[in-house]
Amino acid sequence: MDWGSDLWDQHDVIERHTQNGLDLLDRYVKFVKERADIEQNYAKQLRNLSKKYSRRGIKEDQDIKLTNQQAFQDVLNELNEYAGHREQLCESMTLSICVELSRNLQELRQERKNCLCEVKKAQQNLETTFKQLEISKKRFEKEWKEAEKANQQTEKVQQDVNSTKADVDKAKQQAHLRVHIADESKNEYASQLQRYNKEQNNLYHSEIPSVFKKLQELEERRIRLLANGYVQFSETEKNILPNINKCLDTIISTGRKIDEKQDTLALIEHYRSGAVPPADVEFEDYSQGIRPAASDNAPHLPKVRIKQLFKKNKVTSPDKNMPSSMEDFSRLPPDQRRRRLQEKIDDVQKELQRETEQSEALKKMKDVYEHNSQLGDPSSLQPQITQTAHNIARLRGDLNKYQAQLTEAGGSTLQFSPASAEYIAVLSESSVSPSDNIYEYGFDEDFDVDVPIGQCEALYDFDGSSEGAVSMQVGEQLSLMDEDQGDGWVRVQRANGDVGYVPASYIQII
């Protein structure tokens, strides 16, 4: 059974049913769009929530590095990643369902319209043929009546005794002409009738069944597309669930890694002063005139008022107006002072490392400009080179001061590490005092290893035919060796080992 043979006379039903089916497909597309918008808004709210509760507070509290505080930050990071997967779900729904179904819906509508137009056109042709049949039928009826009337007139003339032979012959000729015209109209009517029956038979047995069968196939395709859309709606989210579960598992693992014992001991390590508790308050006997002398072996402990033990320590942070190079933390307890001095030394070492690398990069860039003036003006780098040299000299002076203060406070000497090799000579000279001229130190260090500082991707093709430049292709992954120093050029390294400069606007840091 099919629509063509069993529903040949249900044109209105088929037209209404196919239209309702396309309307349902359109409603489903709109439903998925709104569902994707919900995911997009949900992801946006999650990102805002993660940003709102990101780590805040006093830097000193963050430096303690408590596992429960770091775990909360990790939870927020995973929540941000979770939001990214939700955005991916929104994008997948939009592309795989909405866009695809909208395109197919447009095609189905056009195909349905063409089919209905074919049926309508065939029906109009049949109606035109029927009108011609009716015209020929009426003409045949009229001419036949006229022929009968002419025959009757001829008989009447023949029976009239007053009629002449000429009148009789004329009546016979008129009757014969009318009969001939009636026969022609009869033949035309028969021809039109045969044509109408043929077209009617072709319409109801060939054209309409063929078109209705196409509409049936169109309806089946629409149903299959809608069914696949239902499946994709679930599978799209199901495919993203492993990544979402991974984020949730990471959050669970983060919570289980929290070490409450370590956190409590970290607070002790960070705030331990090293001072001993106050001694017992001695009994003062006013009933005796002479107070016994204290034993020579008794420890001389400082007298501390009880309220001072619970008074908030306000000297842990240095004066904001005091220069950082003059901080010695002498007002802190011994353990805290040594720890703060060691932190300062580490910070100065890192800053000195950066300044030294920047100085070396400026020197290399200046050499490139000197060999190829098209890339830039060498004299434009001189102010930066001079400023960097002053910064290195100042940082080395600060490093000497903090090292001397740490030694004075009883701290261990700085251990050798590859990262601090460029200023070991400064630390080994114990004769240098903080009051010496800090600009007497040089910075002639040379790096044996050029370490990338990041990765980047080429946005456009670049022909590095000039000296000091390097060629690259769009989409190529490059290692970023030096950042843009204000001249619009960056130094990169290709996968084959070629190193050179490219325009900063031609790459994207990833």
Q: Assembly state here? A: single chain
What is the general shape? elongated
What Rg do the Cα atoms give?
50 Å
Please report the total strand number as a whole number.
5
Compute the separation of the termini in Å.
Answer: 62 Å
SS class: mainly alpha
Q: How much of the residues is beta strand, in percent?
A: under 5%
Uncertain segments: 291-326, 413-448
State mean pLDDT (0 to 100 scale): 80
Percent range for helical residues? 55-70%
* Helical run tally: 10
Largest sheet: 5 strands, antiparallel
Sequence of secondary-structure elements: HHHHHHHHHHEEEEE
| Spatial arrangement of strands, main beta sheet | 4-3-2-1-5
Which short descriptors sum up this protein?
5 strands; 510 residues; 10 helices; mainly alpha
Structure write-up:
Helix 2 packs antiparallel against helix 4 (67-159). This protein has 510 residues and is mainly alpha-helical. The protein has helices spanning 3-6, 11-52, 59-63, 67-159, 165-256, 260-271, 306-309, 334-371, 382-408, 424-428; strands spanning 454-458, 477-482, 489-493, 499-503, 507-509. It has a 5-stranded antiparallel beta sheet, with no helix packed on it. It starts with a helix and ends with a strand. The longest helix has 93 residues, at 67-159.
